[in-house]
Amino acid sequence: MKGSSTLLLAALVLLCSWGLATGEDSSEFFMDFLQTLLVGSPEELYEGPLSKYNVNADAKAALTELKSCIDDLQPMHKAELVKLLVQVLGSEDEA
Predict the structure, then answer these.
(1) How far apart are CA 76 and CA 53, in angstroms?
(2) Does 95 map to a domain?
(3) Considering the domain boundaries, does residue 11 fall inside one?
(4) Its pTM surpasses 0.90
(5) Number of domain units in the chain
(6) Mind listing the pLDDT tens digit for each residue in 5-42?
(7) Which residues form the signal peptide (predicted)?
């Protein structure tokens, strides 16, 4: 499990880096992606933050597995991640 989690994290970093290379605001993309990953569905990822990208079948499988890992978190831990996201989004609004 640790190896697959590392691979998924590396894929996420590459995806965010790709957003930087295309000139997209990386923090906005990342926050939208993370929010959808935490509280949305895999389909919402493809219709939302990833809609302008051609996501291949292997990447979709990896994202589905990553979403499954997040969904399997203890409710307390998932709630803390959502609170952290809200805190980060709030600090961006103040800047």
Answers:
(1) 33
(2) no
(3) yes
(4) no
(5) 1
(6) 555 555 555 555 555 445 556 678 888 888 898 889 98
(7) 1-23
